[in-house]
Amino acid sequence: MLTVVCLCQLMVVLDVSVVNVALPSIRTDLGFTASGLQWVVNAYTLAFGGLLLLGGRLADVIGQRRAAVAGLALFGVTSLLGGLAQQPWELVAARAAQGVSGALLLPVSLTVITTTFAEGPARHRALAVWGAVAGAGGAAGVLLGGVLTEYLDWRWVLFVNVPIAAVAIPLAVACVPARRPGRRPRLDIAGAVLATAAMVVLVYSVVRTDTYAWGSPQTLGGLALGLVLAGAFVAVERRTAAPLVRLGILRSRSLAVACLTVFLIACGQFGAFYFASLYLQGVVEYSPVRTGLAFVPFSLGVVTGTIVAGRIMARVGPRPPLVVGLVLAAAGMSWFGAVSPHGSFTGDILGPSLVASLGLGLCMVPNTAAGTSGVAREEAGLASGLLNSARQCGGSIGLAVLVTVAGTVTRHHEDPAGAAAVTAGYGRAFLVSGLLIAVAALAAAVLLPRRPAPDPAGGADADAEPAAAGTGG
């Protein structure tokens, strides 16, 4: 089962990393504009983030095996269609469809871990393996993306998901239990529609700020509509017997803080990857393969941090490695802000890569462990959906904000078309990334309980810190 869920995680992580490296080639081949290129990323994360709550809940309702097989099959088919795209809109549509399949695939992988491995050391080890696969997938993705883009074609960065799905589907059928409640709960269709609409409208309004200013009627109107939809969602959930999101679950301080933390991490991390790829290929003129190799130390640092975090969490709980990791990640991202138009790998990339990646690796597993601690088995998919939804929405919103920051700095430079102006914009975006992750570190240090408390559905105090809760007793 752990092999299957790791393959699910690998497909999602690999897809993001290989596409980032291929972005310049995609722009040239299909004729994307500079602002339109971000939709190759945002179309995926919009659908992904908007549907993760529904995808997580579906894993609880239809059973883990069905959800895993459906997600894998849809991911393989949409990857094939994306690789065959001939127009920008075709690729963007395929990426959105990939996001739909990923919204089902990723929550079920975390749900299987949560419901299979007992809370404590066993679950921590499983989460460490799951997180290490994410880091290794990142390393493989950036290198594989560079090799495929340079020696074959960018389309192969999407085709590569097809054989992975072909291997994973029969394994899922054989190994993943068809676990679901004895009495199947009703699916909250109204809540699902409102939650998806609110997330999509909010994120879309933000990512369109490259065209419409933050103070424009279009942006302000979109944000207002998104907040109205979110308010309607809360009202519906309060009155629904079987809600999509039981709002009481957010009284678990550990889960609420974990969602906030992962949102801020993603705000900084997703945009940093985007600009690092453009900087390496567009400013210092690395080839796709060399760009992939430049990302390898970062990905290996994430794997190392994940392994270290998995080993020390059982002794000290999730909060210490989480806070230390976030501080390191913030320092590394801020260090990236010193990039220059004539930078080198050793002077501008390697040092900040190692610091930021070790920090991100240290905080991945502890944050997930904190967010899933004390969650009832029948709501494991919901908790997974909340965490992953916060991450993906943070990534989309963060990328849009950082694109706006970088574009503003570049436009106000004395030579907006020069490499110095572009690099100055990227550098400012990296600094903002570091600031966002620093805020996450502060939130984790101040708000996260020393030992995660159980979900207070049964009347427990959400802010209590029982000694046994952190490591499962």
UniProtKB/TrEMBL annotation:
Keyword Coiled coil attributed: no
Record region (Disordered): 454-473
GO cellular component: plasma membrane
Main location: membrane
GO biological process, one term: response to antibiotic
Keywords, sorted A to Z: Antibiotic resistance, Cell membrane, Membrane, Transmembrane, Transmembrane helix, Transport
Transmembrane segments: 37-55, 67-85, 97-118, 127-148, 154-175, 187-207, 219-236, 257-280, 292-310, 322-343, 349-369, 429-448
Membrane topology field: Multi-pass membrane protein
Protein name, as recorded: MFS transporter
Gene source species: Streptomyces tagetis
